[in-house]
Amino acid sequence: MAKYLILVLSIFLLICSLGYSDQGVDFKETKIGGFDFASKLITNQELEKLYGKGCTDKNYPYHYRRLYYFPEKNIYAAFNVETDSLVVGLKLTKEAIVEKKCKAKRNLKNDETGKKIKMGDPKDKVIKAYGKPSEEKIKSNNVVLYRYYVGRQEGPYMEIELLKGMVNSIWITVGD
User: Among 2, 27, 57, 129, which residue has the fewest nearby CB atoms (within 10 Å)?
Assistant: First the structure.
């Protein structure tokens, strides 16, 4: 009897888990700009070797961002660095978040996510790739913010900002 009950309970839980998804997709994006934040994280020192010192924001040296300008694509990057010196996230944006003098010494491997979303892509392509966001918010200047994987226990978090219906920034992080 106990074996039968365990088997029925196991099948029930399996069926329930297959039918549940907080966003309709099980995929959680971890890739951006040639980095995969689900794999071994690089250190701040490795980041500096790749792109140079760039600039840092006001929180340096605790939970800060190392900022770069990439002129070939006219995009800016903000790498999230934690107190243990690990790079835990990356924001790519068209918004001038740092002076152009903070130029990277080399190009990014790419300027897109694992599902090939990049600056300038239309809203429909984002929805097709990732589904409906967990949260949608209208910010100042009519910027629409899509938040994905909100309320997660562990794993990645992603924000995509749209300006006039086109991707203007993408941020993926595994840091809390």
Answer: 2
pLDDT tier at 11, thresholds 50, 70, 90: very low
What's the whole-model pTM score?
0.82
DSSP characters over 138-158: E-GGGEEEEEESTT-SSS-EE
The pLDDT of residue 62 is 82
Residues 52, 107 contacting (CB under 8 angstroms): no
Cβ(146)–Cβ(162) below 8 Å: yes
Residue 35: partners with Cβ closer than 8 Å, 6 or more residues away: 42, 87, 90, 109
Amino acid at 62: Y
C-alpha–C-alpha distance, residues 176 and 166, integer Å? 27
CA distances from 132 to 29, 49, 113, 135, 148 (A): 14, 38, 17, 8, 8
Residue 1's pLDDT band (boundaries 50, 70, 90)? low
Residues in the chain: 176
Cβ-based neighbours of 174, under 8 Å, separated by 6 or more: 30, 37, 38, 41, 88, 89, 155, 156, 157
Full DSSP string of 45-96 = HHHHHHH---EE-TTTTSSEEEEEEETTTTEEEEEEE-TTSBEEEEEEESS-
